[in-house]
């Protein structure tokens, strides 16, 4: 095995160049290969000496194995994810492939380079809705049974967490998000704020604040990050726009306790 | 009120220059004033035309009011936080001050610039321990009653979330973290992985992986981000080091369901 190969699992941030860390940019400049889901690989500028390997959405493990094998051959491989690689992205897939794969891969020089996650970018656009204790769930039932999603939603509501949801609504299973909204309405009440942040930090960005009572499944698509407030989350009408934040502290007599 | 003043709530990332976004750097270059907790304000390089206003840790609301008042006077104000401003940082404090303060402040040009949070940086150093559903709690009982912290820990364990903890151990109340460890041991078992990531992305960085059974309160201090795995979290022995990750999927027969 070459000593010069490496594998960096790189977070590209939510979309804008202005949100890519210098550490990530530098890794992309040094890489011989960029590996990832097609639209993310296309965010890496082409240049001589760089091969871009785009693959389909459902190919995470095969893609991770390909990346590890190339690094073992001495190549400098950037596995790219949107947002942060550790949040519902390629980080876990690479380590899954590492654990199950060639023993020699464990000697590779591997680094994870964090990025601004979609959740943090969406939260920033709205104010500070995750400003106190929160949880973050992937609502896709490709990856776990629906019963577990529902259980987690109910426990998160009981804990009075603010919540952030990735993958709220897949094309193949649109009914899942309608069920999630019904569970949340029952557990948190109709008045609770819900936020839809679509394609944040891209030209298609849009955000909307409403209540669980007014929310409909069509407000989310595959590019939407959804957030639900805790019982203490506040909406503030600004002169031009509305802000949403969750206070830093819970009074001893707070609704949450 | 001047039209040219603004307030940007800026995430400086966990410590290293290489993790500050270009958007944040650009805001700091344009600001006339940087406002924040002393060690964070000191991370903004001094230059002519910039006044740095450092204040104490417990001064968040007064600091936020000062920043809003300066922006209302037409100054370009950067309120700086370590990590991301929306996660247990100045974002919520500024919106709290905005809601309670001068009505004219609501017309100000306010933006939140997200950053790489300590949680994401710590997770990256360890592999991908937050690679599936997780929650994030502030363990400081300055801000909420201990009973609520304990309730949230028990519900998070029941939901089988991976967990990230900010402020695990304050100088004034060191016993809180010992109680949290006892609750987690009871709810998750002695074998569950726990990770201590101290001062990540600074020269003092150190990380340690152990189990709840082996963990002691002294392993954390005020600069430590603590993470606990879910029931599915895996430890992989590498050639030089250990990785920790939480798989992306939960089998239908998984321990979590």
UniProtKB/TrEMBL annotation, chains A, B:
Signal sequence annotation: none
Single GO MF annotation: precorrin-3B C17-methyltransferase activity
Broad EC category: transferase
EC number of the protein: 2.1.1.131
A Gene Ontology BP annotation from the UniProt entry: cobalamin biosynthetic process
Domain Tetrapyrrole methylase: 9-215
Coiled coil: none
Keywords linked to the UniProt accession: Cobalamin biosynthesis, Methyltransferase, S-adenosyl-L-methionine, Transferase
Family matches, as Gene3D superfamilies: Cobalt-precorrin-4 Transmethylase, Domain 1, Methyltransferase, Cobalt-precorrin-4 Transmethylase, Domain 2
Cross-referenced InterPro entries: 4pyrrol_Mease, 4pyrrol_Methylase_sf, 4pyrrole_Mease_sub1, 4pyrrole_Mease_sub2, Cbl_synth_CobJ/CibH_dom, Precorrin_MeTrfase
Pathway noted in the entry: Cofactor biosynthesis; adenosylcobalamin biosynthesis
The name this protein goes by in its record: Precorrin-3B C17-methyltransferase
Lineage: Bacteria, Pseudomonadati, Pseudomonadota, Gammaproteobacteria, Oceanospirillales
